[in-house]
Amino acid sequence: MENCIFCKIVSKRLPAFITYESNDVIAFLDINPINPGHTLVCTKEHFDVLTKVPEKLAQGLMTAVKDVSAKLIIKLGYQGFNILQNNDKCAGQIVPHIHFHVIPRNPDDLVRFNWSENIKRMSEEQFKETYRRLTT
Ligand code: AMP
Ligand code: ZN
């Protein structure tokens, strides 16, 4: 993809702090980190969303996410991490080239995702209907 920022990083046309590279997957530091070490893990091939990534490649991607996460703990001394993966503009995806955010975390790092503010109340009927549609 000619104008994709992450394709440019993959082909080394754009500089990045690359911390992991395999045949199919690359990881580099996010230029706007939530915490130092915040890393983006992406497929070298361009796919816009996770559901388009072939199964075998998805496995390699998850292996890389795991490896990157472990390094943030071992090498940078973090206690935990969040994995975030946005699909589509409506879900906050800005760069339409599949990537996982690995966000390293420490106690009292003041990062807030405000999960509880977004919770929707659902009736038993709504749960049943959602479940029915997903499982039939
Ligand atoms: P998303 O909302 O999941 O699409 O997030 C895209 C992420 O890419 C943002 O966190 C940006 O800070 C990051 N980003 C954009 N351009 C670059 C770049 N050239 N190098 C590293 N990270 C980038
Ligand atoms: Zn791309």
General description of the model:
- The chain is α+β, with helices and mostly antiparallel strands and 136 residues long.
- It has a single domain (5-110), classed as HIT-like (HIT family, subunit A).
- The chain contains three helices and five strands.
- The chain has helices at 5-10, 55-76, 124-135, and strands at 18-21, 25-29, 39-43, 80-84, 99-105.
- The radius of gyration is 17 Å and the shape is globular.
- The N and C termini lie far apart (37 Å).
- The model has no long low-confidence stretch (mean pLDDT 97).
- Bound molecules: adenosine monophosphate and zinc ion.
Task: Please tell me what the overall shape is.
Answer: globular
Bound molecules: adenosine monophosphate, zinc ion
For CATH, the homologous superfamily is named as HIT-like
Which ranges are low-confidence, i.e. pLDDT below 50, for 5 or more consecutive residues?
A: none
Q: Which whole number gives the mean pLDDT?
A: 97
Overall CATH architecture:
2-Layer Sandwich
Count of strand segments: 5
Sequence of secondary-structure elements: HEEEHEEH
The tally of structural domains comes to 1
Major sheet summary line:
5 strands, antiparallel
Q: Count the helices. How many?
A: 3
**Which class of secondary structure composition applies to the elements?**
alpha+beta
Strand order within the widest sheet? 1-2-3-5-4
The whole-angstrom Rg is 17 Å
CATH names the topology as HIT family, subunit A
